[in-house]
Design goal:
Alpha-Beta Plaits; six-stranded mixed sheet; Aminopeptidase; binds zinc ion; single chain; alpha+beta
């Protein structure tokens, strides 16, 4: 991958001046790490204060305008040139060392969740950071502080991008579909949009540190996560007086109830190793209790560990939805969207990260998170480049819930930031030998163009009549275009 050699692209003039004045040092990686650590320690109060400030001002995906501003301001304060408004709210700062080598992306996620029951939830929106993404912006910026030190950069080859990415949580689907209709985005998640916009075209390796709800002092890469397909469903019935003449109506709520029973009846067919999770919610159950419900809507995720299992479960779900419609003679509209691809993280990169963590906090902090049945758009990134997604302890309660809390800000922001900085020093130090080895030997399951074809293939809408199914079946969308498989 060719890199420009004009040098230090992405640094502001002040930092560039300073950088050009120092003679490239023959610093070994351990000296570079200790310079980075000292710089991070010197700013630790500010980094933790910023992470707490983001906790206090939560914003859900594609609405993170204030969070993005805080992030960009901090980047500029430490001498980086920040590009803003990427995929609506994303921010990227890139440093080019001026020497050829891989391009490493250190990511953090900008968005909050919505859990109104949490004590710190925003009173108007219900937004709250109960997935801990606020600490990710802190640890990504901590890594930026360490790696942007001229004495550290002088020892590295290649490029580093610090990416604040919008919208990891796949929520507010109607709002995001509105953004899509307005032409502001195509996919409903931030990293998918970054990929579509070409922001990851020349990135070779990516890292992101997520919090886990445990109070262990540990930084443990995940092995794999489920992928996910999202569905929005509408049952269309016929309204009538619910007491006086229900025989004239078609009850769309009964169709939805039967569909959910049909989905439950599939569960014995899901193989244990596929880790299938199907979880629907009803978003509209009727309009007035005296009228037969004629417009009932649902949203659901169909998750599984492999693409094959995701597609198998999704086909069974569609069958169950149609069975519900057919039983009462309703019509069902099924809108399917690409969720996330299954995540498969890079073991060699994980082992390099383990070395760094052992140095930083000791062997007791090393480990692996076994397969997780949640999903993330880092899964999509993991299908196109070597990626790790370590989990850091220092939180308690249940994730995505009313009792989630960050308990160890030092671990989550400062140590996690140092771990990503040191991993990058290992990858890009010594002429980037280790980074090249990982990037060059990676056999990507998908190229970026194949990836885009696959996720676009999941986009489909279907309208199906349960009263005359053979006449009205009308599916738009062709299914995934590239046959591929993951184990
Ligand atoms: Zn989450
Ligand atoms: Zn999360």
């Amino acid at each position: 991958m060719p890199l420009p050699i004009e040098g230090q692209e992405g640094l502001t003039a002040r930092t560039r001046d300073h950088f050009s004045r120092i003679i490239p040092l023959m610093t070994d990686t351990s000296t570079a790490k200790s310079i980075a650590a000292s710089a991070i320690d010197a700013r630790s109060e500010g980094l933790i204060a910023l992470s707490k400030d983001i906790w206090d001002h939560p914003e859900p995906g594609f609405r993170e305008h204030r969070t993005a501003q805080v992030t960009a301001d901090f980047m500029r304060e430490i001498g980086l040139a920040a590009r803003e408004n990427i995929a609506i709210t994303g921010v990227i700062a890139r440093i080019n060392t001026g020497r050829p080598g891989p391009h490493v992306a250190i990511m953090g996620e900008l968005d909050s969740l919505i859990v109104p029951e949490h004590r710190d939830a925003d009173s108007a929106s219900g937004a709250v950071h109960v997935c801990g993404h606020n600490i990710q912006i802190g640890n990504m910026l901590a890594a930026a502080v360490g790696l942007s030190q001229p004495e550290v950069l002088a020892t590295l080859s290649g490029s580093i991008s610090f990416m604040a990415v919008p919208a990891e949580e796949y929520i507010e689907i109607e709002f995001r579909e509105g953004l899509r209709e307005a032409g502001e985005l195509e996919f409903l998640a931030g990293k998918q949009e970054f990929i579509r916009l070409g922001e990851l075209d020349d990135v070779d390796i990516s890292l992101l540190t997520h919090v886990e709800t445990s109070e262990l002092t540990a930084l443990r890469p995940a092995v794999s996560l489920n992928g996910m397909i999202a569905k929005r469903v509408r049952f269309i019935g016929r309204s009538a007086h619910a007491g006086g003449s229900p025989e004239l109506g078609i009850n769309a709520l009964n169709a939805a109830n039967l569909a959910m029973q049909g989905i439950h009846a599939q569960r014995e067919t899901f193989k244990d190793d596929d880790h299938v999770r199907v979880h629907p919610i009803l978003t509209r159950g009727g309009a007035a209790v005296s009228s037969v419900p004629a417009n009932v809507t649902m949203e659901m995720f169909v998750r599984a560990a492999t693409v094959e299992a995701m597609e198998d479960a999704a086909a069974k779900v569609d069958r169950a939805l149609k069975a519900g419609a057919m039983a009462v003679g309703a019509t069902v509209e099924i809108s399917t969207s690409p969720g996330y691809l299954p995540a498969k993280f890079h073991e060699g990169l994980g082992e390099l990260y383990d070395e760094v963590v052992t140095d930083l906090i000791g062997k007791s902090g090393v480990g692996r998170m076994p397969h997780r049945t949640s999903s993330t758009d880092m899964g999509d990134v993991s299908q196109i480049m070597p990626t790790i997604h370590p989990y850091v302890g220092g939180a308690r309660g249940r994730n995505h819930s009313d009792d989630f809390d960050i308990t160890d800000w030092d671990l989550d922001v400062i140590d996690a930031g140092k771990a990503m900085a040191n991993t990058t020093i290992e990858l890009l130090g010594n002429g980037a030998v280790r980074g090249r080895e990982i990037a060059d030997n990676f056999d990507a399951p998908l190229s970026i163009s194949e990836y885009l074809a696959v996720v676009r293939g999941y986009q489909a809408t279907e309208k199906w009549s349960g009263s005359s199914p053979s006449l009205l079946g009308d599916r738009k969308g062709s299914g995934p275009q590239i046959p591929f498989s993951f184990s």
